[in-house]
């Protein structure tokens, strides 16, 4: 890309915000589905946000980073939107993502 660093960072930030908003709207898409299809989920995004904050010396707790991604406390999101994983979903997760 032939753009300056500041503009690139602003564009990447806008894309991140749009992705997070999209995932907030698509509560029907479960994290396990995201992991099985794309190899990352909402929790991964929140972990990456916390890692970035840690790298910059910014105080951000795990709960705060999850709330930034989910738009609400994680436990509230789980109670409202998370469904029980099917045996097929669990098997796919174990096969493809042994570290999660």
Q: What does this molecule look like?
A:
This protein has 100 residues and is mainly alpha-helical. The protein has a single domain (5-96), classed as SMc04008-like fold, CATH 1.10.3340. The chain has helices at residues 5-25, 31-38, 42-55, 62-70, 74-81, 87-96. The mean pLDDT is 94.
* Element-level helix/strand string: HHHHHH
Bin the strand percentage.
Answer: under 5%
Structural class: mainly alpha
The outline comes out as globular
Spans of 5+ residues with little confidence (pLDDT < 50)? Answer: none
The name of the CATH architecture is Orthogonal Bundle
Please report the total strand number as a whole number. Answer: 0
Radius of gyration: 15 Å
Helix fraction, binned, reads over 70%
Q: Sketch the major β-sheet.
A: none
Mean pLDDT: 94
Key traits:
mainly alpha, SMc04008-like_sf, SMc04008-like domain-containing protein, 100 residues, 70% helix, SMc04008-like_domain, SMc04008-like fold
Short account of what is shown:
This protein has 100 residues and is mostly helical. Helices cover 70% and strands 0% of the residues.
Task: Please specify the SSE layout and strand pairing.
Layout: H1 5-25, H2 31-38, H3 42-55, H4 62-70, H5 74-81, H6 87-96
Helix pairs in contact: 2-6, 3-4
Pfam family, one: DUF1244
Protein name: SMc04008-like domain-containing protein
Region (Disordered): 80-100
């Amino acid at each position: 890309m032939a753009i300056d660093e500041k503009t690139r960072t602003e564009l990447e930030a806008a894309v991140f915000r749009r992705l997070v908003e999209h995932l907030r709207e698509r509560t029907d898409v479960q994290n396990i589905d995201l992991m099985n299809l794309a190899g990352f989920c909402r929790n991964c995004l929140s972990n990456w946000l916390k890692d970035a904050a840690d790298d910059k010396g910014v105080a951000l707790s795990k709960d705060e980073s999850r709330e930034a991604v989910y738009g609400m406390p994680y436990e509230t999101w789980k109670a409202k939107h998370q469904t029980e994983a099917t045996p097929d979903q669990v098997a796919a997760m174990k096969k493809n993502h042994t570290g999660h």
